[in-house]
RNA sequence: GCCCCGGUAGCUCAGCUCGGUUAGAGCGCCGCCUUGGUAAGGCGGAGGUCGCGGGUUCGAAUCCCGCCCGGGGCUCCA
């Protein structure tokens, strides 16, 4: 008896599949890239069998389709390299989030930019040859023999580590690679490709292993998509905070003079930072946090008590005075604990929330430094919450609410949430009892559920001392950034003996929550800068309004207008009227000043101001007071808006 | 930390392959002229230990070595 097998095309049409024929033969030409049968991905050349469920054909719009596309592209890359550099030994070549790479051992050599161009040309040739990509299964032993005969030592190594008895290889023309698949049916399916750059990486990511040359590439079904991607890359490059920041005179990192990973905040950057920090402080006070300060240095012993020293010593700046070892603080937790422990605490005082803009220094390895995003000195919006187990879930909920409020205030709308839990198979690797962990993890999940968030559970990703929630946000050009982290800690309360007296008069150990929502001010600032490409919203702009006299004879009136703006609390400055009007407007545009008030003969006479909004052009003239009323809300930080104006 | 690539004026870059006048350009800066109505007015000028140190050479921005700093990766990210 034969059941019907259905074949669903990417456009939603459903065909009846013919048993014994390949999928490829039954669908319109190049209408799909790969297929999913009963949850398993198969090549389009797969022969339809009886008794399988619906076959779903996938195209480039699906993650699996893209992955297959890029995976085959990586094989084309490897084939091109083998043609041009027969002595190259193949490493691995996966699809990645965007595009693909392939690793090669060139015996100590590396690829020049000209090599990369030649490789790209050769890849195009392979595409043009439209070679069939053929899957072949063989015994592992047979495969080892095959790759040994080709001198592919890394493939042999991979094979020897595998458990499977039967492995698959894929052939296209003269090229053969060990690969699980699936792949596109022909190399000609790849329409537009680009070799992006080369770099080096260690075999299996281990620096004791040989260095491989990693070549990155990208490919798309159409030239337009490739062009759009390259444009977007260019856009991302232009937004790079390391370029835009100094360009807008916000900050600099003169590492030759002060050392790597350290930031100098220039006046305009400092203005923005101050606005952000003031906002944070007000909001935290409103949300029931207390503001504290702690020193930048302390005896190294403090971190011995916290247990950080063993693990963290290499990251700490340590020095000696009067025979005692001191360290610059790499984190604020112990100080906040000391605030808590300065007296005996009752359950009535909990939860206690201590907040500090805590500047810390960590000796990050030089290779990981990256502008503001990974610096050696940075300021955390750090808080430690001491709570009873009963209040834990509600407290987590509140932290998440605050986090969402902050993110939305800064213009981020899209989030991704992850919970890192322990690995229940290895409880011995974690601090705390199974009850502790289960209660804590369900508190985290329950809080997220109540908030209506979707989240991903990363089992085994928790730190030994407690589970955590990480929040990533998505920026204006679709990139994801890890920002907020909310971590439970069963460890420090025990080490420092952090307790409270409960309703029955008995002493209990608190549960501690570490949380940094923006993460670090520096990092967040860098992300904001890239998110807005330097065009900060009005409430964050370092100069909100520039008064721009048409000629020097308008300077007096311009000064009056400036004074009115400053008195109203607006961050405003004055253009000095030197040079042509067009030139000065251009200057202000490049400086990304959001609003220009142009003052000429007409304005002096009428007492009005001509308003120009960046990106929108001339908005026409209006009365100065009318202008202030119209824009004041936008000038203010989100928490100060609505009603009581300050002028 | 490791691998590869790089460092020339405040910025972006040319010159380096093959050593040889006084190291160039654009932007910015300064001065003068221009008093201009919504993204570049004109003319002139100043500005450089060619990342730092050493070596080779009659002679080094250029070739060699070491170091510092940056970039792309790997790794790390309590």
Write out the strand line-up for the largest beta sheet, numbering strands in chain order: 16-20-21-28-25-24-22-23
The coarse overall form would be globular
Class from secondary-structure proportions: alpha+beta
Fold-level CATH name of the largest domain: BirA Bifunctional Protein, domain 2
* Strands, count: 33
Percent in strands:
25-35%
CATH architecture heading of the largest domain: 2-Layer Sandwich
Average pLDDT level: 91
User: How is the biggest beta sheet arranged?
Assistant: 8 strands, mixed
Radius of gyration from the alpha-carbon trace, in angstroms: 31 Å
* CATH homologous superfamily identity of the largest domain: Bira Bifunctional Protein, Domain 2
Straight-line distance between termini:
84 Å
Number of domains: 4
* Low-pLDDT segments, ≥5 res: none
User: What's the total helix number?
Assistant: 20
CATH class of the largest domain: Alpha Beta
